[in-house]
TrEMBL record:
Coarse class of the protein's main subcellular location: cytoplasm
Keyword flag Cytoplasm: yes
Organism classification: Eukaryota, Metazoa, Chordata, Craniata, Vertebrata
Region annotation Disordered: where it falls in the sequence: 34-59, 172-197
GO molecular function: ATP binding; protein-glycine ligase activity, initiating
InterPro entries: ATP_grasp_subdomain_1 (IPR013815), TTL/TTLL_fam (IPR004344), TTLL_monoglycylase (IPR051437)
Gene Ontology process terms (BP): cilium assembly; cilium movement
Acidic residues compositional bias, start-end: 43-54
Protein name: TTLL3 monoglycylase
Location relative to the cell: Cytoplasm, Cytoskeleton, Flagellum axoneme
Highest taxon of the lineage: Eukaryota
Organism: Notiomystis cincta
UniProt keyword Ligase, yes or no: yes
Length: 552
């Protein structure tokens, strides 16, 4: 019946409007509602919105909208829930958002929800979510400081082993140097080798070994009889240790390593790997990423411009650290100082999260990328989740390097990368619009000899991460029958093709920035309407690339 086919669209969604009109639905337009709704803290700000062409030259749709101006809509698609009249949400109408999803769609909410996951499910968030701390919580800030120090100790053991191995192969490298260098497939910039006259720290490896042994004892529950709750924080002078570690990791200072210590380093790291799922991906330079915790959907990532060069470790902040955007840093002092000093109105006091940067990640032609993966929740009681089989990759504008931490190399969001021109040293095989489809990625994996990685490692890993995240936040979401929501999850890919969840967006952009996203964004909107509207009347209808992956 026509009275059941009135819809309302708030925000820049011409595809949704066109698809509903093609189904015979009539739009109820709100007076004064225009593009001002497109900018809102809850919406993902990525690229310029698609121009809305005049699809109503005869004025017929405007006339029909006028006739239903006093009627309540049966279907609402909006870019943020609080733009919707609360009275409409009390009715049995279909709405494309749930309330209180900030429990997993803000960085702070996701961090807190996944901390609680082990109490809800037999799952370890450290297996798919880089460890994360809310700096506004004193306990978590102290836990982060301890984590940073322990990671520095582990990293130093890795650097010591690397230096020892370099010493063993140096002669061979000299012999082979005349042959010329081929293309390097290792994108991770190696730290500078020790310069002549750089300091040596013979005691540093022993200190790091002692710290890691203490930590291993804690992890293996051998510290039950200790009177101190955290022996790792008191067993050495951490200020001195970190300063020397910075010299080794970032400034080329040398290490002295005996053969016995080499074996001890290998043994301790092997045992730690059995306890720490993130030991491999965390690398050896101790890079962390600082984010405004109350923000979501990539907002704030373009705060500031220019290159983040290393500043004095406890001195003044580099210019790019003075903005409220996301920042990568390898210095503890910079993290703590920025979290204390930022007074930007968009960042509430204490609402920062700091997360371990995935240093050992898969790159494509030497460039970092991430994956935007869609999914839909059509019910929370019982939890019902649909996974979209198509997704896309977003590339950075400059080659990946851990020696340079500016945004152009490390933040893949279109809202960041659109401000940068492609670097001259970027591999020409990369797409000019910095977007790939998952099909192109699968072809690339096949060229690497990893043809099965997509279906056997990446997709199962992304599905598991999404489901575990939703279950961790399920009790926090305000459930409403008749609602649904399309989300966009962002993943990094480790060297071993394991996906690492970064964040989940409650209002993923549908504005095309490339030929790939123009096609995929239109498809996911089409298939979402099939899923939530057409399937009600015809359970056997096509739902495109969606597949049901969970129903309680």
């Amino acid at each position: 019946a026509q009275e059941k086919k009135i819809f309302m669209v708030q925000g820049p969604y011409p595809t949704i409007r066109r698809l509903l009109r093609a189904r015979g639905w009539v739009e109820r337009k709100l007076p004064g509602v225009g593009r001002q709704l497109a900018q809102h803290p809850a919406e993902e700000e990525e690229e310029e919105e698609e121009e809305q062409h005049d699809e109503d030259p005869s004025g017929l749709h405007d006339l029909m909208s006028y006739l239903v101006r006093d009627r309540l809509p049966n279907f609402i698609w909006t870019n943020f829930l609080d733009a919707t009249d609360p009275e409409l949400l009390q009715q049995d109408y279909v709405v494309n958002h749930y309330a209180r999803v900030d429990a997993f769609t803000t960085k702070e909410g996701l961090c807190l929800s996944l901390q609680n996951l082990p109490w809800i499910e037999q799952a370890d968030p450290n297996a798919f979510f880089p460890r994360c701390y809310r700096l506004g919580s004193m306990d978590e800030r102290e836990a982060f400081i301890e984590d940073f120090c322990l990671t520095a100790a582990r990293s130093l053991l890795k650097l010591a082993l690397e230096e020892a191995e370099d010493g063993l192969v140096r002669t061979e490298q000299v012999k082979n140097s005349a042959k010329g260098a081929g293309e390097s497939h290792i994108p991770h910039s190696k730290r500078s080798t020790a310069r002549p006259g750089s300091p040596l720290y013979p005691e540093l490896v022993e200190e790091a070994l002692e710290v890691c042994r203490q930590h291993l004892g804690v992890l293996q529950h051998q510290d039950i009889d200790r009177s101190t709750p955290s022996p790792c924080r008191t067993c050495i002078n951490w200020d001195h240790f970190l300063q020397k570690y910075y010299h080794v990791a970032h400034e080329g200072a040398g290490l002295v390593l005996t053969r016995q210590q080499q074996k001890q380093c290998q043994n301790v790291l092997r045992h730690l790997a059995e306890q720490l799922p993130q030991l491999h991906m965390e690398g050896k330079l101790n890079v962390w990423i600082l984010k405004p915790g109350a923000e979501s959907q990539g907002r704030g990532k373009a705060g500031g411009s220019g290159e983040h060069t290393e500043a004095s470790h406890l001195g003044g902040l580099p210019p790019s650290l003075c903005s409220p955007g996301i920042v990568c840093t390898a210095r503890l002092g910079e993290v703590l100082q920025l979290a204390r000093s930022c007074t930007a109105p968009s960042v509430q006091v204490g609402r920062w999260v700091v997360q371990k940067y995935v240093e050992r990640l898969l790159t494509i032609f030497g460039t970092k990328f991430d994956i935007r993966q869609w999914f839909v929740v059509t019910d929370w009681k019982p939890l019902t989740v649909w996974f979209y089989r198509d997704c896309y990759l977003r590339f950075c504008s400059r080659p990946f390097s851990l020696c340079h931490l500016e945004r152009a190399r490390h933040l893949c969001n279109v809202s960041v990368q659109k401000w940068y021109q492609t670097s001259p040293d970027q591999d020409p095989r990369l797409p000019s619009d910095k977007i790939w489809s998952n099909k192109q990625f699968q072809e690339y994996l096949a060229q690497l000899g990893q043809a099965d990685a997509w279906h056997q490692v990446l997709v199962p890993g992304m599905k598991a991460a999404i489901l575990n995240t939703l279950r961790s936040a399920q009790d926090q979401v305000s459930f409403r029958k008749g609602s649904f929501e399309l989300y966009g999850a962002d993943f990094l890919v480790g060297e071993d093709c394991q996906p690492w969840l970064l964040e989940i967006n409650s209002c993923p952009t549908m504005s095309p920035s490339s030929a790939v996203t123009r096609r995929l964004c239109a498809n996911v909107q089409r298939d979402t309407l099939c899923l939530v509207l057409d399937r009600k009347d015809n359970p056997a209808c096509s739902i495109g690339a969606f597949e049901l992956i969970y129903k309680e």
